[in-house]
Design a protein that fits this description.
about 500 residues, alpha/beta, DNAb Helicase, Chain A, Rossmann fold, 9 strands, elongated
Length: about 500
């Protein structure tokens, strides 16, 4: 046994002589994390050689990318000088580190001066920075996989929670959101001022800071659907929730070039597209379903759907989708197609868990879903518009059947989590022909903004064109206002007991 040990020791010593010192360390202590210390030195040296070098790499380089702590501290000093509009060179960086009390910690003034001897110029700084980022990503992947492996061996770990966590962290790495830590107030103030300035430049275009809905009066109230907001749009069955969001998705994508993801849990993707075609081509939806079109209507169809065919709209009709699957699909769509709005039709048809054996009642499940949707909106920084059903309490009231917040079905935390809650109300749904002031209400739709975290609560009037399954602005001249075919008359459904029976529109 001793001979074998001696023989092994001799072989190991022989190997150490043949490899560089760093590799010798790897043999001695095990694997080293992916790194490129010499390139870190070259990048820092280049940053101190040329004043504009930092601008070229600022968007992909942060302190955590560096492997050595000393280099992280030097880079923080460089960023500090940059933020205060001070020149960046050997002397200023040395002085900044001295003021921070970390000069000796990083190796002293001599080491700072030595860094500039590693490169002749900043010509290759972009290429060198990309190498550092790649090494950092590899270290992050190792860390994530190690954490996943450790938790996977823990029998108390929920497998689907772990899977979601792993996917979220991998998504963050892919997007460059590698830490998600706090942001200094100075940075937030700067970003806020930039947003205000951008709004000022766009005031002639409506001054919208979010995704436009295409409904002028609504956009004036909301300034567009805001990133990270959860918007709930609710109504009784048959009021036109699906038609409303389809019209809105069409406007956002076709007119404003925004990417929109639609998750339809009730209707198939083909049915949704047929509605979009009916509205876009201004052809009766009944004719489209039957295929009974005249020759001129076929021509009209082919002519008008060209813009729609190029729309950046993605439809997923997976039935009973759960929040885990939804997050996964939205992350991929955000990464691959940069979607700017998510629409869910509708919330009550979703499942909170993959594992249906979890012991939760329906109200708790709906609360989990609403919290998950709000979290998704914040994670992807996009507005999430979720449709919701209203309870029968609306029908039990007297003459005034306009919805209120307490009518939200299986509400739980829906009202609390939502940034905006809106109700769709069409008087003619209940057989009404005029309002309290004796004004005609045929073809009129009220969008009641019952909660608005960013502004006022009010009511926006829209036009509903039944045969095209479309909502539009009251001022839009899509068709002659005297065209009686554009007016829908529906018998009262106040006594309808079929809660989940969604009307055609």
């Amino acid at each position: 046994m001793e001979k074998k040990t001696d023989s092994f020791s001799e072989k190991l010593a022989s190997i150490r002589k043949k490899v560089p010192q760093s590799m010798g360390q790897m043999v001695e202590f095990g694997k080293l994390p992916p790194q490129a210390v010499h390139i870190e030195e070259a990048v820092l040296g280049a940053l101190m050689l040329e004043k504009d070098a930092l601008i070229d790499v600022l968007d992909m380089l942060n302190a955590d990318v560096f492997y050595r702590d000393e280099h992280k501290e030097i880079y923080r000093a460089i960023i500090g000088l940059f933020e205060n509009s001070k020149p960046i060179d050997i002397l200023t960086v040395t002085n900044e580190l001295r003021n921070r009390g970390s000069l000796e910690q990083v190796g002293g003034a001599y080491y700072i001066a030595e860094l500039t001897n590693r490169v002749g110029s900043s010509a290759n700084i972009d290429y060198h920075t990309r190498i550092l980022v790649e090494k950092f990503i590899l270290r992050e992947l190792i860390k994530i996989s190690s954490d996943v492996q450790r938790e996977a061996y823990d029998e108390t770990t929920d497998v689907f929670d772990l899977l979601d966590k792993a996917e979220r962290e991998l998504y963050n790495v892919a997007q460059g959101n590698l830490k998600g830590s706090y942001t200094p107030m100075s940075t937030l103030i700067t970003k806020s001022l930039e947003a205000i300035e951008e709004m000022s430049k766009n005031k002639d275009k409506g001054g919208l800071s979010g995704v436009p809905s295409g409904y002028f009066d609504l956009d004036r109230v909301t300034s567009g659907w805001q990133p990270s907001d959860l918007i709930i749009i609710a109504s009784r069955p048959g009021m036109g929730k699906t038609s409303f969001v389809l019209s809105m998705a069409r406007n956002a994508s076709v007119e404003f070039g925004r990417g929109v993801a639609i998750f339809s849990l009730e209707m198939s993707s083909i049915q949704l597209v047929q509605r979009l075609i009916s509205a876009e081509a201004e052809l009766d939806s009944e004719k489209l379903r039957s295929g009974n079109l005249e020759s001129y209507e076929w021509q009209q169809l082919n002519t008008k759907i060209d813009k729609l065919s190029k729309a950046n709209i993605f439809i997923d009709d997976t039935p009973g989708i759960n929040v885990f699957e939804l997050r996964a699909k939205c992350r991929r769509l955000k990464s691959q197609h940069n979607i700017e709005m998510i629409i869910i039709d509708y919330l009550q048809l979703m499942n909170a868990h993959i594992d249906q054996r979890k012991n939760t009642n329906r109200e708790q499940e709906i609360s989990q879903i609403s919290r998950a949707l709000k979290g998704l909106a914040k994670e992807l920084n996009v507005p999430v518009v979720a449709l919701s059903q209203l309870s029968r309490e609306v029908e039990k009231r007297g003459s005034n059947k306009r919805p209120i917040l307490s009518d939200l079905r299986e509400s739980g935390s829906i009202e609390q989590d939502a940034d905006q809650v809106m109700f769709i109300y069409r008087p003619e749904y209940y057989g009404l022909t005029e309002d309290e002031d004796h004004n005609p209400v045929q073809g009129l739709a009220e969008l009641i903004i019952a909660k608005n975290r960013h502004g006022s609560t009010t009511t926006v009037n829209l036009k509903f064109i039944s045969k095209f399954a479309r909502f539009s602005n009251l001022t839009d001249n899509y068709l002659n206002d005297n065209d009686s075919d554009g007016i829908i008359t529906i018998n009262s459904r106040a006594s309808d007991d079929d809660e989940d029976d969604e009307a055609p529109f």
